[in-house]
Amino acid sequence: LGCCYVSKPERKIVLLGKTGDGKSTAGNTILREKMFIPKVSANSVTAHCERRQRKVHGRKITVIDTPGFFDMDHNDAETKSEIVKSLIECAPVVDAFIIVLKVGRHDNEVVQKFLNTLHKDALKHAVILFTFGEQLEGKTIKEFVKDSSQLQKLVDKCGGRCHVIDNKYWKKRIWGNKSNRVQVKNLLKTIDKMVEENGCCTNEFLQKLEKHIQEDEKNISAVNLSPEEIREKAKEMVHEEYVKRLAGVATGTLMGAFLGIDVVVRSVVTLLTPENPQAVIQIVRAAAQNMTQECEIGSYLRAGITAAGGALCLAGAVGAVVGGVTGYKAAEEADSVNDSVTRAVADTYAKALHVNEKVQDLVSVASKDIKAN
């Protein structure tokens, strides 16, 4: 009898983190080759989303290095473009989000940003990877985490999943805890177990992006182009289209979609419906500018749904207006992109939970109003 070789599944990994914490070099360590150029400047605004892949421990690993979204302070077109590009690279599913943090004197504000912006659904698919492991100075990573209540809270929310590497001192060691090779192998095992328990991370928006990519692939002439080149060309076309269609959406709202926040995802997907997205945008802005008390949400939702109901799916319009109103207000009041994301997350969930019990009634009433008119 011959031996049956079972290949290990491919993995798609997304790196999240602050500029300067070793995100790009962590990507190189995972892929065991210098494929990302580390950002030497603290200014992350000019950074771009990049994807690299190669075989590691007998399987194809894709690493997506995102810009330093968590320390950006601009709500500009370039930032939005990079968020859209990151979403396209993630489509249709992601196996793991890797939160990259630096060992050393830790900035609790950075950890708090992750706690504020990553919802439990995203954290189910997250692993923390500490860099600069040599700075542990004899401590284990668990002991280091225990020293900070904020860090411990984040690790706990990630199911206790954390690993540590050192991009400088642990390169050449081939065994033991102070070996990048050993740590990466253990990291991939952790991801395998996490995917087995929690599945892959996806949402309606990522599925919609994948559908559009595949549609564009069919329309591209295959002359002298490999399947990989056709897909890259299709992704470029989808990126250009979506950047234009989402030009009026706040950066914080796009980040909410990237992080998989359900209500925000629904909002963005609805805004992308071809029938009449401008109607919903106008409703969202009008409602946001006039909503002064939480109890008023219901009336503005009803008005918004009634106005848009002829052109949009009612259930989708609810999601668009709920997510859009809160996201729009958060972006208007925020001083930075990160502040906008944080506020959008907290605000959207608070409002969504408040409205959730009323949604079906609102849809029913609005539907009757539309039919009557």
UniProtKB/TrEMBL annotation:
It comes from Cyprinus carpio. The keyword Coiled coil does not apply. Residues 8-214 form the AIG1-type G domain. The gene is LOC109052680. Belongs to the TRAFAC class TrmE-Era-EngA-EngB-Septin-like GTPase superfamily. AIG1/Toc34/Toc159-like paraseptin GTPase family. IAN subfamily. Keywords: GTP-binding, Nucleotide-binding. GO terms for molecular function: GTP binding. This is Zgc:195075. PROSITE patterns: G_AIG1. Pfam families: AIG1.
